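User: Some background: our group keeps a shared notebook of sequences we're curious about, and every so often someone picks one and asks for a predicted structure to add to the entry. Today it's my turn. The entry only has the sequence so far, pasted here. Could you supply the structure so I can complete it?
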Amino acid sequence: MRIKFYAMFALIALSGSAWSQKVTVKSQGEKVKGENGEGFTTELDGKMSEVNLLWSKFLKELGRVKLFSTDPMIITGPNFNGTVYPKGIVYGHIFENGNQTRVWLGMLSKEWDVKDVVIAKEQLEKLIYQFGIRFYREKAQQQIDQAQQAADAVERQKQRLINQNADMVRQLANNEEEQEQLAKSMENNKLERETLKIRIERNKKEQDSLANAVIQIKKVIESHKETQRKIN
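Assistant: Of course. Here's the predicted structure to add to the notebook entry:
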């Protein structure tokens, strides 16, 4: 049990130091519909399986994700700070690279009103940064939860050991008390045994004495009978 807990703590310690919390965003183009899409990207320390679920949720919060759209995902009617842009379209890409995952948000300027292009680019840069922060915070929270679960498990085990110790202390006290009572009982039994031996020996002597007295009395009786017979 101790080994299991130590291994758990080691795993938590290693996972807590295995990734950086700094989010770096850079401008980068990606192919969208055969054209060069403009956008922003960030590299995250985490496998795609760790990032993808949160990324999909993030894109759905941004706007309406077009059904069956992948590589990139297509978001129509994006919502930036409460303002919906009906004509705007945002594209979301996710790329896996070993233990790292890169996410990208971008657009085709021609699909936006000219007056909204600059605002959209600014928002996409902020959003990709916010997603990176959100990912690392949720990952940190998961590690906090895991550490807390481990701490709770250790505390429960500690309490179990405390309770077990208290039970064993009570059992030992009861055992010692019983042993003491048994020792007293054995001592009393020994004394009673010796007393009975003495009484038995005394009884036998008294029986012998009475037997001799009976013999003497019988002799006296016979003597009296003999005297009686001789009387004329």
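Suggested note for the entry: The first strand starts at residue 25 and ends at 27. The two ends are 113 Å apart (CA to CA).
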